[in-house]
Fold Carbonate dehydratase.
Amino acid sequence: MSTPAPHDWHAQHAEQTLQHLDTSPDGLSAEQVQERLESFGPNRLPRRRRNGPLRRLLLQFHNLLIYVLLLSALVTLALGEWLDSAVIFAVVVINAIVGFIQEGKAEQAMRAIQKMLTLDSKVRRAGRTLNVPAEQLVPGDMVMLEAGDRVPADMRLLECRDLRIEEAALTGESLPASKQVEPVAQDAGIGDRYSMAYSGTLVSAGSGTGVVVATAGKTELGQISHMLGEVVSLQTPLLADMARFARVLTFIILALAVGTYLFGVGLRGYSTDEMLLAAVGLAVAAIPEGLPAVLTITLALGVQRMARRRAIIRRLPAVESLGAVTVICSDKTGTLTRNEMTVQQVFTAAHRYQIEGVGYAPTGRIRCDDGRLCELEEASDLHALARAGLLCNSASLLADGSGDEWSIAGDPTEAALLTLAGKLGLIAAHEHGYTPRVDSIPFSSERRCMASLHHDHSGHGLIYMIGAPERLVEVCNQQLIDGSAEPLDPSYWHGVLSDGAAQGLRMLGLAVRALGAPRHELNYEDLEGDFVLLGLVGMLDPPREEAIEAINECRQAGIAVKMITGDHAETAAAIARRLGLGDSTPITGAELDRLSDSQLDARLGDTTVFARTSPAHKLRLVQRLQACGARVAMTGDGVNDAPALKRADIGVAMGIKGTEVAKEAAQMVLADDNFATIANAVEEGRTVYDNLKKSILFILPTNGGEAMVLLVAIALGLTLPITPLQILWVNMITAVTLALALAFEPGEADVMRRPPRDPDTALLSTQLMWRVLLVAILMTAACIGVFVYAQQLGWSMEASRTLAVNTLVACEIAYLFSSRQINAPARFGWRDNPMVWGMIVLLALLQLAFTHWAPLQRLFATQSLDPLGWGICLLAGAALLAVVETEKWLRRRAGWPL
């Protein structure tokens, strides 16, 4: 071992560490603590600054189309048209308030599931033991750890008494790591640094003492936080798409406005002020000012639906981003698996038993060699093994009030043995009463076993031992068959170990030694031979059943699922097979370090499991997948997942078992830690995108028709059939009624059988723009046609314009039914979306007020219509619907769907 650098604390001897830190087993003096606190600062990570309310509100105006609207409002204000200007400003402000409120709700929902943790530490300073806040720890402090403590800083361990620490949040390893004082190799990964205890991990058993070697940002947790700060978040597909759309639309609108101004002044002889107002009217007509509000509301509805399904969306566009995801990279422990060790198989000398049931609930059937249900009364060897696991045990099973949820106190491996005993009907209190414990030796990483001493009230002593199978095969000379001891067959047990390893099981051996007379003390010499091997148990952190179904559903939706875990390759591969992820050979973190980017890219498509990975590996994998064109969702719950969560196109954190760092980095938090919710989110995301497309496909023809009405009128030298103020009324009223109704449309039947959409494909393709142009032309023809007809009948200008506006609205109502399905026939039913008919009724009432209510007549210069006028409106709407449906029918016949 080479001489380690001062920061390679895991490779240094304890004495070297104390010398480097200028401390002693008695701890630091008060002066040293104060000096180091000033030098290193408090032991806390910097907290991410949130946008304040004012900044969040101002960001709602950061939109190119909104800028054009504000410019239009300023122009109308400068021209003295204060009413038009006030309405435009009101539209912009309403849109901003809607977005502000919805984002605020998402932030509140996120804060509601966050749990703050204050931490005190037991520290030895100047020879005295004190309880101090973790924030006051400094390098050189001597910290004492006990079961249940959360490690407050990175520590080099100086004393260990059967110390085991759960490091899943940092390393992804599902089982607690056994700690030691002896140094390890300098190049050991984080998961193999057994001489260290890292900040944020949890002591599951034993006790120990360590010296603080790093605090705050210098800890492994802090390094990940720093890495997180350097990761650049990617723009969601929807926002990128809308940004492209806004740029193109803005360019077209400005070009039309300038062209109209120049044409009117240069060729038609209109005055400058008159054409400035016309240009503004054209911009107001063409800009879909209701679109930002519809976009926000559609996304907000998706957020609310997901919240009811136990998912919290932290950023509105994230719900839609899932609809474009092509790869989901998932952490294993606690995400795809239950994070609850479970005995899956029991191997005795005569039988192999399959144990059903998962988690810590002591319920589940037991099957024998041929798969038939086991007669428990006849399984004496299984009972003897389970009794040993129950008696040589320091864990506890805890049931909630209903008895449906079970938790543990103590080591997960020991708790799994208690669950096995419970499935066989063994009751802990009774067994301890029959065979009380006299003494015990806790688990030792050096001896790789634990043992307990018992007596049976009949003058007999018993030693039960649990440990690594290789260790027990060494100390056992007999094996139990049909209730009697026979000579041990080592080759049989080595074969069993190979079978278990192939299945990714964590194997444990159980043995018993009978004593001729009762004993009152147990020592290490008693563990060196003459034991009877009862059998081996194979344990696994089982996959979630709902995760298996969700993975299958994602595959049907064209989404690949890849497992990225810190666990061992064999275990990860076994879990992957059970999850239905295939039999591909896992790539380990060490292999990842040896692969160039091009070599890794070539293997990404066929590899579904990445094992023994570090935070940097996870981040690299997400980046390489994105470089290969994938849209990546990353799920996880640990600190080690946070950089990849932030870098991914959408990060999904677990809300219950997830760390605060993971939640902060993610765009979506699963409040129930259920992987299956992700499949629901994908479906919801695709539905949201469909509804956005339907809404846009509905809104744009309205704006296009209004703009074309102005262009045609100016080109032909006609009086404007609709005023700019009336245009604003139509845009805003129909956008928040009819267009909003499409946001409630249910998902199409094939939404989860389509491949993921290509995020680089424009939201509005050329073919979709054809539909927009067709409907815009039809609306323009109807609007100008009825206006000219009304003028020929001798109607007043106010009545003619009122007829034109209502005809436009009638055409929109008719087109709404057609827009409910882009390619399929128009849908008129109300059960699947009652909002459609509700909004039509609301809009009809608003148009009646617009037409007949005196205050609105004065504001918008309208006039009441007679039955003939309303009949003309209905006829125009029916004609437009017939033409659009005919176009859809012809497309279906020709096989040219949009």
Q: What stands out?
A: The CA atoms of residues 23 and 486 lie 57 Å apart. The chain has four domains: 9-45+117-229, 235-306+682-752+762-894, 311-337+545-673, 342-540.
